[in-house]
Design brief:
With 315 residues, this protein is an alpha/beta fold. It has 2 domains: 183 residues, Formyl transferase, N-terminal domain (Rossmann fold, 3-Layer(aba) Sandwich), CATH 3.40.50.170; 95 residues, Formyl transferase, C-terminal domain (Methionyl-tRNA Fmet Formyltransferase, Chain A, domain 2), CATH 3.10.25. It contains 8 helices and 18 strands. Helix 1 packs parallel to helix 6 and helix 5 runs antiparallel to helix 7. The protein is elongated, with a radius of gyration of 23 Å.
């Protein structure tokens, strides 16, 4: 059985859950690589990645290269004498990096590959109304998320679950999948499956302002899936207009009401406690939202301080 010397690469909170599990299972992590610090927020203060915070708190050897092909970084990486690298939510690696360790470099991806390769697999699985998803470990090759699969684990998606809740469940499922993968590699028992290519493979495109905007002409279920698939981050959004005012509004939580009506699509209907928006086959009831300059709040709380006219619209 080969003793593993691991270099771990990752950046966000999702990666931390996996790294923590590796450490708690007494594997030797000889180095941690994460994104360079960058300014964030209104004050443009320097923000550490979640993985950096964890590495500092646990006295792990930390590297933050800005260029993964830089000679000085490659020398530092080689000097760690790792025989395995693990990548969880990091960035595309140059061949010189992923080829370096004797036992290879494997990635944990939060989908059932080959579906949902790309930047936002958790969000797109919900947005597209999938009823199941999972995690996959695979050896990295020179394309994005296309390498030979080591193992995968599946889980059902609850019809009311949002991206934040699914993220946390997949982090736990992924932690187990990584430990299972490490045991296979340690014992020399790995068998891999080459990913099959087909026209029907779904992609996890990068999220942007345009694909996060709500189109109120879509069906109630499509709109509901978009809202929960983008909650709590980055959040689905739209414009509200009333009289001569217009607001860019984020919507975090909603539910569907299937009911016939004769209202124009996008009409906003409010009582003192409830807000619903007319769609093609019913209504979307808004449960929590955020107006510009305000904090995120429950709709009932928001409606305490504002009232809309009968001609208010969402678009």
């Amino acid at each position: 059985m080969e003793k593993l010397r691991i270099v771990f690469m990752g950046t966000p909170e999702f990666s931390v859950g996996i790294l923590d599990t590796i450490i708690k299972n007494n594997y030797e992590v000889v180095g941690v690589i994460t994104a360079a610090d960058k300014p964030a927020g209104r004050g443009q203060k320097i923000k550490y990645s979640a993985v950096k915070e964890y590495a500092l708190n646990n006295n792990l050897n930390l590297l933050q290269p800005s260029n993964l092909k830089e000679e000085s970084f490659l020398e530092e990486l080689k000097a760690l004498n790792a025989n395995l690298q693990i990548v969880v939510a990091f960035r595309m690696l140059p061949k010189v990096v992923w080829e370096m360790p004797k036992l290879g470099t494997f990635n944990l991806h939060a989908s059932l590959l080959p579906n949902y390769r790309g930047a936002a697999p958790i969000n797109w699985a919900i947005i597209n109304g999938e009823t199941k998803t999972g995690v996959t470990t695979f050896f990295i090759d020179d394309k994005i998320d296309t390498g030979a699969i080591i193992l995968s684990a599946e889980t059902a998606i609850d019809p009311t679950e949002n991206a934040g809740q699914l993220h946390d469940r997949l982090m736990h499922l992924g932690s187990k999948a990584v430990i299972d993968t490490l045991e296979l590699i340690e014992k020399g028992n790995v068998t891999t499956t080459v990913q099959t290519e087909s026209d029907g493979i779904k992609t996890a495109y990068k999220l942007n302002k345009e694909n996060c905007k709500i189109d109120w002409t879509k069906s109630a279920s499509e709109i509901h899936n978009l809202i929960r698939g983008l909650s709590p981050y980055p959040a689905a959004w739209c414009f509200f207009s009333d009289k001569d005012e217009e607001w860019n509004v984020k919507i975090y939580e909603a539910q569907m009401i299937m009911e016939d009506h004769a209202l124009a699509i996008g009409s906003i209907i409010c009582t003192k406690k409830e807000m619903k928006i007319a769609v093609e086959n019913g209504y979307i009831q808004i449960l929590s939202l955020q107006f510009p300059g305000k904090k995120k709040m429950k709709t009932s709380e928001f409606l305490n301080g504002i009232s809309f006219s009968g001609t208010a619209k969402a678009f």
